[in-house]
Design goal:
decarboxylase; 3 domains; globular; glutamate decarboxylase activity; 463 residues; seven-stranded mixed β-sheet; PyrdxlP-dep_Trfase; alpha/beta; Glutamate decarboxylase; 10 helices
Length: 463
Amino acid sequence: MPVTRRTADSDTVALNPVFVRPGEATELSRFAIPEGESLPETAYQIVHDEAMLDGNARLNLATFVGTWMDGPAERLYAETFDKNMVDKDEYPATAAVETRCWTMLAGLWHAPDPRDTIGTSTVGSSEACMLGGLALKRRWQHARRAAGKPTDRPNLVMSSAVQVCWEKFCNYWDVEARLVPISEEHKVLDGDDLESYVDENTIGVVAILGVTYTGMYEPVRRIADALDRIQAATGLDVPIHIDGASGAFIAPFVQPDLEWDFRVARVASISTSGHKYGLVYPGLGWVVWRDKAALPEDLIFRVTYLGGDMPTLALNFSRPGAQVLLQYYMFLRLGMDGYRRVQQSAHDVARYLAGEVAKLPQFALWNDGADIPVFAWRLRDGHTENWNLYHLSDRLRTRGWLVPAYPMPDDLADVTVQRVVVRNGLSRDLAGAFVSDLRAEVAYLDRLSAPMPVEGQRPSFHH
């Protein structure tokens, strides 16, 4: 029987009388550990019913994070969720699989010698980004000290549409964030006017392979060419980190000829999310460096833990090992051909959806899903004063669809967009159902004879 819910600000959770077993409490504290025990079934039912109120993951078009794996993967997950990734002495086979995975990624991303590089798994791509940023900062510090120069004013150049983890990195590690504003003319960081942001204190440039706001690729080759010109004029040799949270698992399969990875000489490191288009459940990221020389040795710790001596370079210590095994499972399960078909399918659905949205006269596409399977649109200027994209987002939520609406960054903050992320599991049939619901809700809003209220509107989650 379900738990009888009280209001969110209630201090207790009350149980349905039919559900309560003899001797058990009928109310449990919501914010303090209960004094007594409960039966496993009772605790399960409470947590189960709380989680039941979450949205349907298959209809969540806001998140990039994977929400489905097949039966054998789930069985493998259940068999290995007790493994601690950091304990390489106790779980040497899992440690070996981790090395195989990042070596595979180094090859996928055209490292000069995949067996002579270095990488690591992380809890997610945010941790991977921070490790990439730390390596850039430490390499810059070593070079500056060797030249007898100060190291107290490092800066990192990136787009104003950068994911929030980079702002955290700059905040936590005392690096000045130099944000290049995007605009209608320059929708991504593309190398234009880069010389105005780069100086001797620049530790690197971040290029995003799939901007979170819109899904667009930043042109790595053009950015590298701009840095080549800067070096020719000033002598400054500035490396690039690729934030490939999504695109690093899309471009190799959907746009294999696009030069964005280690084929570009300035690319020092690449990070990605295994739990996004790597097709693994949440909790996995990867970072790989061009070669061992790209990662300063003093960022690698060698510690004795639980009887073994092992190197570690992640920010977290104890963390799950199961997701690493799931990534290896997916590499074996799909292979190159399987990944091509899965990613191409998502890409095709995104292009279909973008085309259908483009047909609606109320909207103007910001981009069309040609890069990662993500696209965004905005309301056409002057279409209506009665509703906005936040209202449409709320209407779609009543049908189960989570489609975020939010303002663009900084210089484009007056532009509000909506975005759809197509992941594995959003079939062509489901996409067709979404289009039907979208049309129906737009028609409903267009029939309004007076403006909808705007009080309390706020951006949906989009990072």
